[in-house]
Every structure is written in C-alpha cells, then in structure tokens.
Design goal:
alpha/beta, Carbamate kinase, nine-stranded mixed beta sheet, two-stranded antiparallel ribbon, 8 helices
C-alpha cells in the first residue's frame, strides 16, 4: 500500500446505521471505536478529516413524517439524533489521541461549537478532526446534502460515502444476484438511473462543484485508509 495519500482533505459521510454494528438500534461502542481507529490511520498520513454523521440509528425523521408526524418536527428530532452520534464519535476519537471538535448546525453551546466555516477550516489546519452534526440545520434536507454542502465549504478533495456494501450496484445485490457493480459512474449516470449513491440534491451539488464521491465498504477494517491512499476500492462518482 502506498504511504502517499491521494487526498489531502476528506469528508467522511457516515450513516447513523453505520454506528449500530450488529445492533438493531442505537450505538455499538466497539463499532464506533473501530471507525475511530480507521480515522486515526488516515490522520497519521497528515490528511485532514471532516465527518458528517447521520441519525437513522436513533430517529428517522422521514419515516415518522410518513406516519403522520409534522415533517419539520420529525426532521428536527432527526437532527438532534445526529448530535448524539457526533458526541459518541468525538469521545472515541479523543480516547485514542485525536483532538476533535463537534460542530453543530443547530446552536447548543454547552455540547458543541456552532458550525462556522472559517472556524471549521481553522480546526483542520491545526490538525484536529471535525465532526459536523445536525445536518444543514434545516428541515427537508438530508445528511447527504449536508455532507455535500460541508465538503464544498471546507474545500474537501473528495466525499467518502461509507456503506455496508463494496460499491454501487445496478440493483440490490442481496435481492438480485445478477446486479452489476460499477467501478465508475458520472454524476449524470447516478441522476438518470436513480442510483442510491446520495440523494439528487447532494449529487447535483457535488456535480456543480466537481467533488468526486467514493462509495466504499466501511465494515472492512482498513478500507478507509486504502481509499485515501488511492487504491481502487468501491465506486467512484465523478465528472468523467
């Protein structure tokens, strides 16, 4: 494996489900510790790391809205769930020596710093990891969109979309054994085919700003470091 990183600043998008491990709900401490260890390995290459975390392991706003809850209220509750996950990730990272700041799009001064772009960039320049919580701070926008927005704002070279599968497929590989795995897609491929990479808003924002997306399997220990080091893992979504 090459020791020279391909990227100098990355935005890691974690779903809330990625923190569950084998649980059906909540946070699995060992899984969070494993992810933190993977981030540490990347930081040792002097790569700046920002993390946007979802909250689906705690509360799914869209699902609750579909059952009759007011959509704005449901999305706000989902955003609060991401803060819980962000604080858990901060705890695991700092236990193994990575100075970390949680920055929230919703003001909550006793728990997290407010998200301010210049402050976020300054933390990265000082060698700190940043965990960005509460999505965009607004309802109706997913944490995928938050990841794309924050990646643009902090000048990330790439969005690393962590999943439980080894890339993007033409269909669900668990249901369709003939599903094709793609090594590369363009943003327009994703939008035209309706592929489940990131939502359309996030994909369009990445396309407009030419930020590549790498979809990879986070459950395989060391994959994060391999992606950052330039190995061909997962699916790359880019201009061409």
């Amino acid at each position: 494996m090459s020791t020279a990183p391909r990227y100098r600043r990355v935005l890691l998008k974690l779903s809330g489900e990625a923190l569950m491990g084998g649980l059906s709900y909540g946070i699995d401490g060992r899984t969070v510790e494993r992810i933190a260890a993977d981030i540490v390995a990347v930081r040792r290459l002097a790569v700046d790391v920002g993390v946007v975390v979802g909250g689906g392991n705690i509360f799914r706003g869209l699902a609750e809205a579909a059952r009759g809850m007011d959509r704005v209220t449901a999305d706000q509750m989902g955003m609060l769930g991401t803060v819980i996950n962000a604080v858990a990730m901060q705890d695991s990272l700092e236990k193994i020596g990575v100075k970390t700041r949680v920055m929230s799009a919703i003001p909550m001064a006793s728990i997290a710093e407010p998200y301010i772009r210049r402050r976020a960039v300054r933390h990265l320049e000082k060698g700190r990891a940043i965990v960005l919580a509460a999505g965009t701070g607004h309802p109706y926008f997913s944490t995928d969109t938050a990841a794309a927005l924050r990646a643009v704002e902090i000048g990330a070279d790439v969005i690393l979309k962590a999943t439980k599968v080894d890339g993007v497929y033409s269909a669900d590989p668990k249901l369709d054994p003939t599903a094709e795995r793609f090594e590369h897609l363009t943003y327009m491929d994703v939008l035209r085919r309706g592929l489940k990479v990131m939502d359309a808003t996030a994909t369009s924002l990445c396309m407009d700003n030419e930020i590549p997306i790498v979809v990879f399997d986070l459950t395989c220990h060391g994959n994060l470091l391999r992606v950052v080091s330039g190995e061909k893992i997962g699916t790359v979504v880019s201009v061409r």
